[in-house]
Write a structure and sequence with these properties.
129 residues, alpha/beta, RbsD-like fold, 6 strands, 29% helix, 22% strand, cytoplasm
């Protein structure tokens, strides 16, 4: 059994397999998941686990080089935006429709129980050296 880091075996495997510039998505419970993109569904009930908690925990175990967010998060969800800003990496903003198109390229979408608008982020893998 692991002593530290993410205990979820699916998430641990995805993070270990990422290459530079690969992407994963952390999503609220309403984001559509494109056909062909792997899903790790953590949602237990509305709000659990939260977007903020999952972003914090995953980013703590991942080399994140950049994030992509929907522009709409700025006005609609300052709490989720603040959680992502704490990662202290460059941010790219696109429309929500463009964001959904970008999710088609993700290695995986991690679905949280979050039920607030635009609580979605694309994490771009960096390197550890």
């Amino acid at each position: 059994m692991k002593r530290h880091g993410i205990l979820n075996s699916q998430i641990s495997k995805v993070l270990a397999d990422l290459g530079h510039t690969d992407t994963i998505v952390i999503a609220d419970c309403g984001l559509p998941i494109p056909a062909g993109v792997a899903r790790i569904d953590l949602a237990l009930e509305l709000g659990t686990p939260s977007f903020v908690d999952v972003v914090r925990i995953v980013a703590d175990d991942m080399a994140v080089e950049q994030v992509t967010l929907a522009t709409e998060i700025k006005a609609a969800n300052p709490v989720a935006l603040e959680a992502v800003m704490k990662l202290d990496v460059p941010q790219d903003y696109v429309s929500h429709e463009a964001f959904k198109e970008l999710t088609k390229q993700a290695k995986v979408i991690i679905r949280t129980g979050e039920a607030t608008p635009y609580a979605n982020v694309i994490l771009h893998a960096g390197v550890i050296f």
